[in-house]
Amino acid sequence: MAKEQKKGKRFLPWLMVLSMMLSLAPVNAFAEESNDSTAESYCPDSESTTESSDESSDNSSEVSESNDAAEESSEDETTDAPKETEAASKDETDTAFDAAFSFEAKEEAPEESISTGSAVSEKAVVFAAESAAPPAEDVTTYYPVYVYACFANNGTLLNRGNNHPAAVVTDGVKQEISWNEDAPRGWYYITFGEVEKGTTVAPVKGASATLNGKHADMEMKPFTGIGNAAGNNFRLSNVGTWGDLGFNTGATGFPGVRASWHLDGQIDVHAVTYATDGEGVTNLPASSADNRVYYRGTYKVAAKEPKREGYTFKYRSDCL
Question: Taking the chain, what is the end-to-end CA distance rounded to the nearest angstrom?
Answer without folding.
Answer: 173
